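Chain entry —
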Amino acid sequence: IPMGILQVCLVVLAAIVNHPLIFPGENGTVPENTEEIIQKMKDREVTLRLEQLRLEQEIAEQEALQKALEKSAEVVKESKEKNVLWDMWTAFSMVIFLLIELWRQDFQEGIWQDTGEEDDMAVLGKAFKGVAFPDKAVLASFYEKRILGTTGDMARMREMVEGFADDLLEALRSVCNRDADMEVEDCMGVGSMYENWRVRKPFVCDLIVPFAPPEPYCFQSQTWCSGDSFPPHEQGYGTIKVCRADEDGTGCICDRTKLGEDMLCLLHSQANSTRPSSEMEDLLCFKNTQYLDADQVMKWFQIAVTKAWNRISHKYEFDLSFSLLDSPGALKIKFRSGKSIAFNLTPVVQYENSDVYFISHFPRSSLAADLPSSTHWFLTFAVYERRFIQLVSKTLPANACHVSCLQILSFLHGKQCSLTGPSGLTNYHLKTVMLHLLQARPSQDWGPEKLEARLQDMLKFLEKCLHEKKLLHFFIGNGKVPAELGFPTIFQRAQPLNLFRPFVLHRDIYRKTVDTFHEMLRNMTALINEYTVHIRLAQT
């Protein structure tokens, strides 16, 4: 063992003595290696310094960004606080404004309600101070002598016109092709002549004539309140689609589904899947569509009436002609004595199974807008209006004054328009006012002794509607229509239709209408007294 230890010690001593770092030789490379190591260390030092500078720069940028974010957050917070303060001030100002406006309206209503009945008799509103109403005796005398005295022959005229119209339509059916032309039904009388309130001459009877397409076709109607969206200017209108009786309103499913090449529709073959445009035009449709064209219908109707008159003209000792270019259904009977009778014969289409009708031509006023297109048909509720008046009249006192009020108001407005020119008001607007008041007031308020009070009510109601530019259609959107009329619920549930909406769009017509109404109120007493005096002088 000692010898082993000695050998190890000798080996270690030899290794130490021969190590180049302790006793370097002449050919050693230690100095060169040292310079290379020193150079690498310097390069590393430079790299570390550059990295340190980059990190310091990034830290500085992050600190600057953090400060900017903190500053912007403070600005946003301050602006939000300012906006909250401004919104609170705006809301507070609006509340104060609404409270002041409500107080002002209540104050005005209170003043209006505090005025006695005598003040109400003398003035309708602030703009009409000094306007007095004729007393009951003058009104009663004026109505009896001026209104009733000129409307006594209406019944004979209606009977004569209806008899001739029936004969003319029977001849029309005989000249039409039953397999290709429209099928014409019996006519119906509507309007002021058949509601017994027309006062202005010439007396004109309004007759509507329902018609239907030949077999196998039928009409599919669509109104503005049937679910599809209609723009505001098309409210009150609808379209009529001509379909085959074996189709629904949207057509067979083979028109909407792509069938395979080996599949065939059992209802329609390729021969009749598409209809020629000429066939639809023969059915009075608009070009390249299935929608009934009102202009085409009126042309067809005029030609058919002319042929029918040529067939029966030898039986009558008078001439028949179309009287107005802008009213295609206006006819005039001319007697050899020079007298004449005018009446309107207008084709209509029935809406489903009701007495609402699509009318091909409706008398237009300066207030009414142009039709959207000839495929849009106006809806008339004239049959239900006549029935409502008849139904309500059964519950009113004897010789009720509702018709008298409407006749006087229609007469005064017509006289005023003859002096100052036409306005946006029509007799239909005046009748709508009466219908609303008939529903709003109890039956006992329409006794003959209440003529003066009810006439004032109509004028007040009309003044309010003109001020608000809002007169709602009586039937559309009215859930209080008596169930006995059988009125379609689709129109009762519809949004109310404002008859005065065009006043919002046509400010010049609105201004003219209001001025005419004010002038009528100022001239009312003088006009009634003048006619009453003339009647008395004629009697003496």
About this structure: The domain at 121-245+280-533 is CATH 3.30.460.90 (Beta Polymerase; domain 2). DSSP finds 15 helices and ten strands in the chain.
